[in-house]
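Annex B.
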Amino acid sequence: MQSIQANNYFVHFNQNAYEALNTHLKENKYSNLFIIVDNQTNEHCLPKLLPIIETDLNIEIIEFEAGEANKNIETCIEIWNVLTDLGADRKSLVINLGGGVVTDLGAFVASTFKRGVNFINIPTTLLSMVDASVGGKTGVDLGNLKNQIGVFNVPQMVLIDTQYLETLSQAEMRSGLAEMLKHGLIYDAPYWKQFLDLKSIDYADFDELIYRSVEIKNEIVIQDPTEKNIRKALNFGHTLGHAIESYFLESETKTTLLHGEAIAIGMILESYISLHKNLISEAEYAEIKTAIKAIYEEVQIEESDIEPIMELLIHDKKNEFGTIQFALIEGIGKIKINQLVENKLILSAFEDYKS
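3-dehydroquinate synthase: predicted structure tokens.
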């Protein structure tokens, strides 16, 4: 697979990825190498990576506990302290091996340690391959509020090896699939159509679907690196989806949702809103709702849950001047950004989801 040129770095795939990594290590004089993992990627992914790395550098492994609950500034402080204790300097290289939590947090750690050291991301989940791999977003959560603290900063490269997907559960695969569905809905109608009958997909060709998803996100990000305009399209499903994800994360009575599970709900809700703003047809909405509900189990959202979810919308990063901004679809494959939506319509979308 041909490497994809992103903003000031390349996304490399499968065997080409490791050749690019080892070439980079030979051509750059790094003082030492740190690999940031969580406990799951330490067990399942690191044993594959270590024998492939060709270097005489001292390699140190830094592990933290897996999960969104640990994507916070406290974990960053612990890692900054470990880097300091182990003698990291501005010529150190950090490799982040893991899903979106590891690559987001690890990239933020590297971007801020000694005002920035080089880093490389190796995403190991479907979600991180098709989403976190492109765009230069780094950061952590603030309490239960998603990705409130962070900076834009690009890696030296991103390495995508789809063999890591063999370590994932079906739930994790479905979580990543949500972002791929989103890419079709906002940008590429024929791509979306490929997912309408999952049974017909030849998984031997799944690498090509991942490649196209990365390509779509990259085409959008290149036009708008810091999310002032068209990059907001990527937030479709995320305005309500992030609020739902945050609410379920903090609630003591709810089972925490995976990112893609929450975004799947958000895409149905925001498609309903698109319908009632006359941006999509009834047939298009029915197609979207049916396709997504065929993949994801319906999540029970009680009447008492809706008000606290709505309150979390206030903290959405896309808000400007105190108003909530939605990215809605204008027909399948097209997007309309900066859309204001009244609360009554949002409440109606929840009612429709539950029906």
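The first strand starts at residue 4 and ends at 5. The chain has two domains: 4-167, 170-354. Further annotation is deferred to the next reporting cycle.
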